[in-house]
Amino acid sequence: MSVLNLLISLGLLVALGFLGAFLWAVRSGQYDDTYTPSLRMLHDEDRVLTKEHQKTR
Question: Does the pLDDT value for residue 48 go beyond 60?
Fold first, then answer.
């Protein structure tokens, strides 16, 4: 029975840790920009080719 209490308390501690990390991310502005990611796929960026890639082309 003591193992069950230990597992429940550890599970609650981990869950509170994840909740704290999520709240920190929300308050620090990690989820503020919801418009730009939808447009990122529309912009084709030219990649700089290295010398090895230029030889094969």
Answer: no
